[in-house]
C-alpha cells in the first residue's frame, strides 16, 4: 500500500496518540482530531482516572515506538497488593514470586503528553484539539466534526479512518445506528460505580502510606483502592453499588453519612484523608461498563481500536495495556504487507478479538477477586502456593495473574484458559485436602505438588476440550 | 393493586396476545396495539417463520389460560430428529427415551389467531391493528403510535406499558437511546442467516417424507431442516453463512448455482422440492440474532417481555416456549400480590432473567450440535446411552435436551448447568474408554454406567462450584 495515504485518527487519548506516533513512524500522512483541549496546556483530568496500572504489554508497545527509556521515569513500581483489613491490619500480597515481575502506577496525563510530543515530532503527523467527532460516514470514509473554537461543523475526508475515541465512540455509534450491516454489539454495566478520591502527601511531601503497592480495602460488597503518584499523593477509588446495600452511592448524600461509612469500613484510610468529604462531593460518580462489538471494521474504510472497540472494567489493570497491545498487534499485521486495508483490518480483527474478549471477562472476574476473594482462606492459600511455585521454580509456573500481566507474548485468551484451569485445579486440590500446610512444604514436596497441579490443569483443559464437542 | 388499571400492550404476536388474554382473565383493562394488519383476515406470514416447535413450557402456559384442548388439534407431534446424510440415508434419533416426550410442529398463524380470538372474548381486552409503536416515553408511561389507516400519529397513555413487540422492540430502543439509566444491552448476530423454503404435499395431499419428525440435513458448515404442516407440506429452512465458504448466501445468485448446491449437499431434499428455485429467489434471507438486555423494566411504568426482552436463535425450538413461559412466570409473581408494579416487575426480572440468558446460550450450542455434532460418532454414542437411560430408568435420568424441553418445572438455567455437566461427564467417559459398546449393555451394566455418570456429573458441578470462588 502507498505510504502517502491519508489516515484520519479520531481521538488523541492514549491509544490514538500511540497509533498516530506509530503510523507517523511508518510514513503515513496522519491527521488526528481530539475533542478535548490539549492536555499539555489545560487541566482536563476530570472524569477519567488520574493514574493507571502499566505493565508488560504496555511496555512492549513502548519498546516498539522507542519510548521505553522515556517512560521509565514516569513509573512507580507496585510489587503487590497491600491488603487492609477492617481493623487496619495490612499484609503485602506480592503479584509474583519472581522479583522482576511487578506492575507500575503511571499518570495518564504525563504518559499521554509524552506520546503527543513524540507523535508531533513527525512532520507527517498533525494533531488538532477541540474537534469533536459527531458521526462517521463509513461508506464514504468521511467524518463529521464540530470545531469548538469556531463552533462550526466540517467534514474530514481520508483514505482510512481509525476511531480511537474511547468507550463512547462516535464511530461505533454510527455503525450501530447506520444499520447498513449486521453489527454485533454489547454494553454491560456493573451494579457498581466508582468515585475518585485522594490521599494527599504529608506536609513534608512524603507518601502517607507504603508507596510501592496497590492498596486494597476489600469489603466483599464494595472496595477502596489506592495507587501512588509521583508527587507523593495517592489516587484513591471507591467502588460501590449505586442503589443496593446499607451504604450506596444513592444514599451517601450527607457529610455525616460519608464519614460514618468510612469510619465503619475504612478507618485507617479515613485517617489519611482529611480531604475526604470535599473530594466525595466534588468528584463525579461514574459507571463501570464493558463494551464488545464486531465487526470492528467496515470494509477497508474504517477501524475501531482501543476502548472504542473493547472497553473493559478496570479491575485487571489492563485497559491501557490492552489498547497499547492493539497497536503492537496492528503493527504486526502491517508488517505482513497485505494488499489493501480491508485485508489488514480483517486479519487484525480475526487475530485480536478473541484476546480482547478474554481480557474483558478476566477484568470482571478480578472485580470479585479484589473485593472479596483476596480475604478468603482458600484464595490466600492458593496464592501462597503460587508464589512458592514462581519463586522456587521460576521457569516452570506462572499464575493466571502472571500469565495475563507479565507474559506479553502469550495472548489474553490463552492466559485466561490456562489460568482458569490452574485456579480450578489448585482450589479443588485444596478443598479435597490433596494439598495442605502450603506454607511449610519442603522443596521436594513443593515440586511434587507442582507436578500434580500441572497434571490436573492439563486434565481440566483436556476434559473441557472434549466436552466442547457437545 | 386495582384491577381496573389500564394496561397497554405493544405487539399482538404470540407473547402479546397470550399476555393480553391472561391479563384480561385477571380483570385488567387491556389495550393492545399491533403494527401489522389482523393476521386472521390478511396473509402476513412473510418475514417470520411459518411453523414453530411447541413443547412442554408452551403447553404449560396454554393450561394456565385454559387452552390446552383447543391447541391440540393444531399440533403435529415430532418424536425425534430424522437425520439425512449426504447419500440420502436416514436415521431417526428420538428426542427422548420416554415415549410420552416429544415436541410439536405448530403453525404460528393458527396459534396466534387462537390467542387473539380468546383474548377478544373478554370485553375488557381491546386489540387494534395497523398501529405501529414509534417510541415509548417510559417516564410519562405513554407511547407514540402511527396509525397506518389514517397515517396520523397519536399518543396512548396507560398505568403500565408492556412491550411484547419482538426482537426489534421500539420500547427497548427507547431505553437504549434515552440514556436515562444504565441500560445493559447486547445484540449478537451469527455469521449465518436463514431462508425459508418448502416441500409441498404430494398430488394426493400426502406428506412427501416422514411426517412425525424434525428433519435435519446437517453439513457441518450449514444445514437444512424441515418441519411438517397440517396441510401435508413441510416448511424447510436453510441455515447458511452470509459471506464465507464455497457456497454462501452472497454467492448463491443464480438458479444454476442454487441447484448445484442442493444437488451436491441435499440431493434427497432437492427431489422433494421442484419449487426450490422459485422459493429461493422469492423469499427473503434473514439474520439470526440474540438479544439480551437489563433492566427490562423502568420503575413501575414499563416492562419488556418475550423477544423484546430476550430474542434467541431458533435452534433449541424454545423461542416461543420461552416467551410463553414469561407469561406463566409473570402470572406467578402477580399471585404474590405485591403492592405495586415496580415490585412486581423487579421480582419478575430477578427470578426470570437468569433463565432467559441460559436458553439464549443453549440455543447457540444447539446450532453447532444440529449442523455438525449429530453426525459425530461420540455424540451419537452419548445420545444412544442417554436414550437407554431414559427408557430403562425413566425416573432417574433426563438428558440436557429433556431437561430443557420436557421438564417445564425446572428452570432453563438449572437445566443448562446440569445438562452440560452430564454431557461433559459422558463425553469424557467415552473418550477415556470408561464406557464402551453402549448399544449392548446389560441392564445391570447400564445401571452401573448410570451411577458412574451421576457421580461424575456431581463431581463436575462441585468442582465448578469450588472454582467459582476464583
Q: What do you see in this structure?
A:
Two copies of one chain form a homodimer. Chain A is of the alpha/beta class and 470 residues long. Chain A has three domains: 6-75 and 107-187 and 289-364, FAD/NAD(P)-binding domain, CATH 3.50.50.60; 188-287; 376-467, no CATH class. Helix content of chain A is 39%, strand content 23%. Chain A contains 14 helices and 19 strands. Chain A has helices at 14-25, 56-64, 68-71, 108-120, 170-178, 255-265, 267-270, 276-282, 319-335, 341-371, 377-392, 400-406, 412-431, 443-467, and strands at 6-10, 29-33, 51-54, 76-78, 80-84, 90-94, 103-107, 125-128, 131-137, 142-147, 152-157, 160-163, 184-199, 214-218, 223-228, 234-241, 285-294, 297-298, 302-304. In chain A, the strands form four sheets. In chain A, strands 6-5-14-15-16-13-17 form a seven-stranded mixed sheet. In chain A, strand 9 (131-137) and strand 10 (142-147) form a beta hairpin. In chain A, helix 11 (377-392) crosses helix 13 and helix 11 crosses helix 14. The longest helix of chain A has 31 residues, at 341-371. Chain A is globular, with a radius of gyration of 23 Å. The mean pLDDT of chain A is 95. Chain A binds chain B through residues 182-189, 242, 287, 289, 292, 365, 369, 373, 376, 378-379, 420, 423-424, 427-428, 431, 463-464, 466-467, 469-470, and chain B through 182-189, 242, 287, 289, 292, 365, 368-369, 373, 376, 378-379, 420, 423-424, 427-428, 431, 463-464, 466-467, 469-470.
Amino acid at each position: 500500500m502507498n505510504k502517502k495515504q491519508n489516515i484520519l485518527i479520531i481521538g488523541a487519548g492514549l491509544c490514538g496518540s500511540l497509533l498516530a506516533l506509530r503510523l507517523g513512524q511508518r510514513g503515513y500522512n496522519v491527521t488526528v482530531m481530539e475533542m478535548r483541549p490539549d492536555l499539555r496546556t489545560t487541566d482536563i483530568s476530570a472524569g477519567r482516572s488520574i493514574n493507571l496500572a502499566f505493565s508488560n504489554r504496555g511496555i512492549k508497545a513502548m519498546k516498539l515506538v522507542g519510548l521505553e527509556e522515556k517512560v521509565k521515569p514516569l513509573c512507580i513500581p507496585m510489587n503487590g497488593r497491600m491488603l487492609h483489613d477492617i481493623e487496619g491490619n495490612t499484609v503485602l500480597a506480592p503479584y509474583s514470586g519472581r522479583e522482576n515481575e511487578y506492575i507500575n502506577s503511571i499518570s495518564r496525563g504525563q504518559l499521554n503528553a509524552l506520546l503527543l510530543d513524540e507523535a508531533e515530532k513527525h512532520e507527517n503527523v498533525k494533531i488538532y484539539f477541540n474537534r469533536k467527532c459527531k458521526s462517521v460516514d463509513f461508506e464514504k470514509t468521511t467524518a463529521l466534526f464540530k470545531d469548538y473554537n469556531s463552533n462550526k461543523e466540517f467534514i474530514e475526508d481520508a483514505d482510512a479512518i481509525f476511531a480511537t475515541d474511547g468507550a463512547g465512540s462516535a464511530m461505533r455509534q454510527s455503525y450501530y445506528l447506520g444499520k447498513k450491516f449486521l453489527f454485533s454489539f454489547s454494553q454491560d454495566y456493573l451494579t457498581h460505580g466508582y468515585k475518585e478520591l485522594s490521599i494527599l502527601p504529608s506536609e513534608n511531601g512524603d507518601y502517607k502510606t507504603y508507596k510501592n503497592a496497590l492498596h486494597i480495602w476489600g469489603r466483599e460488597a464494595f472496595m477502596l483502592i489506592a495507587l501512588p503518584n509521583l508527587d507523593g499523593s495517592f489516587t484513591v477509588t471507591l467502588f460501590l453499588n449505586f442503589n443496593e446495600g446499607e451504604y450506596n452511592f444513592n444514599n451517601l448524600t450527607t457529610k455525616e453519612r460519608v464519614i460514618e461509612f468510612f469510619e465503619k469500613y475504612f478507618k485507617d484510610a479515613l485517617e489519611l484523608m482529611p480531604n475526604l468529604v470535599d473530594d466525595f462531593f466534588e468528584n463525579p460518580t461514574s459507571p463501570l461498563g464493558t463494551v464488545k462489538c464486531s465487526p470492528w471494521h467496515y470494509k477497508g474504510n474504517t477501524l475501531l481500536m482501543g476502548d472504542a472497540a473493547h472497553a473493559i472494567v478496570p479491575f485487571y489493570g489492563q485497559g491501557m495495556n490492552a489498547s497499547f497491545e492493539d497497536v503492537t498487534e496492528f503493527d504486526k499485521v502491517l508488517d505482513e504487507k497485505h494488499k489493501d486495508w480491508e485485508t489488514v483490518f480483517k486479519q487484525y480483527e480475526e487475530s485480536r478479538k478473541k484476546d480482547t474478549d478474554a481480557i474483558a471477562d478476566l477484568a470482571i472476574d478480578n472485580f470479585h477477586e479484589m473485593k472479596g476473594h483476596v480475604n478468603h482462606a482458600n484464595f490466600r492459600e492458593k496464592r501462597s502456593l503460587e508464589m512458592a511455585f514462581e519463586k522456587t521454580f521460576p521457569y516452570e509456573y506462572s499464575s493466571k495473574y502472571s500469565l495475563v500481566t507479565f507474559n506479553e507474548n502469550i495472548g489474553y485468551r490463552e492466559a485466561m484458559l490456562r489460568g482458569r484451569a490452574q485456579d480450578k485445579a489448585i482450589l479443588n486440590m485444596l478443598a479435597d485436602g490433596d494439598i495442605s500446610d502450603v506454607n511449610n512444604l519442603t522443596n521436594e514436596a513443593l515440586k511434587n505438588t507442582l507436578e500434580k497441579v500441572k497434571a490436573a490443569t492439563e486434565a481440566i483443559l483436556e476434559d473441557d476440550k472434549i466436552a466442547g464437542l457437545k
